[in-house]
TrEMBL record:
Keyword Transmembrane helix set for record: yes
Protein name as catalogued: Predicted outer membrane protein
Membrane spanning residue stretches: 205-226
Signal peptide span: 1-26
Keyword Glycoprotein in annotation: no
Residue ranges of domain DUF4142 in the record: 40-171
């Protein structure tokens, strides 16, 4: 039979574990509910939407008007990929309450006009590949920076998906052999320090401190209980009554 003291110790240990478990669950739930959507996060959703608004028709034109069979294949792939990405983008925007444009920017419309006014299929191929290759390089960098710094899990996951699609499109466009790399803009590194993504809010720091104190206290209590139990086991029955 277990003694009263042993039962009390077991109950104390169980109580400590329950308290720690409840506190950890509350902290996790609070963190999940408190994920803000910043203006930078919104920029990602809007940029992906805008990319689809001009690249889907451009891909369709490449599929039907391109001179090169490879350009036709690339156009088809880009059109389908952006169609899928656009569905995810609009669903996430609705979930997070982000407004989306319904037409491309003036600059993007100008690129479409340039393709539409191409005098020959070969000229269309060149314009299509280089306009899309340059645009993909710009948005690839922007998405990567947002992916690295966002604190929102949904935005982070979507940015990962979007950048995988963009990298695939860059590779496809370059596979045509028409990409003019000398005309691409020089890469620019972000001025935001890498440590900025690691900044913690006051609530995050408090949560970590409290958890550390609770875990430390529980560890000390458990060690004391174990040592005390071993000491009692070493005593002879007659010594317990002295």
């Amino acid at each position: 039979m277990r003694s009263v003291s042993e039962r009390l110790r077991a109950a104390a240990v169980l109580l400590v574990l329950l308290v720690l478990g409840q506190f950890a669950l509350a902290a996790i739930a609070g963190a999940q509910q408190a994920q803000p959507v910043t203006s930078t996060d919104e920029t990602l959703i809007v940029k992906v939407r805008l990319a689809g608004l001009w690249e889907m028709p451009a891909g369709n034109w490449a599929r039907t008007r391109g001179a090169s069979p490879r350009v036709k294949e690339v156009g088809m792939s880009i059109m389908v990929d952006h169609g899928r990405l656009d569905v995810q983008d609009r669903a996430l925007a609705a979930e997070l309450g982000i407004g989306l444009p319904d037409r491309p920017t003036a600059e993007q419309q100008g690129w479409l006009d340039e393709m539409q006014n191409a005098r020959t299929p070969a000229e269309f191929d060149r314009i299509f590949v280089n306009r899309l290759r340059a645009a993909h390089g710009v948005i690839f960098s922007a998405i990567a920076q947002i992916r690295a710094g966002t604190r929102n899990d949904r935005i982070r996951a979507f940015a990962t998906t979007a950048n995988q699609a963009v990298l695939r499109h860059i590779t496809l466009l370059e596979s045509t052999g028409l990409a003019e790399f000398d005309a691409l803009p020089q890469p620019q590194l972000s001025s935001v320090p890498a440590s900025a993504a690691l900044d913690l809010k006051a609530t995050d720091i408090i949560t970590v401190v409290v958890l550390a104190l609770l875990l430390g206290g529980a560890t000390v209590l458990l060690l004391w209980l174990i040592r005390n139990s071993r000491t009692r086991l070493k005593l002879r029955p007659g010594e317990l009554n002295e």
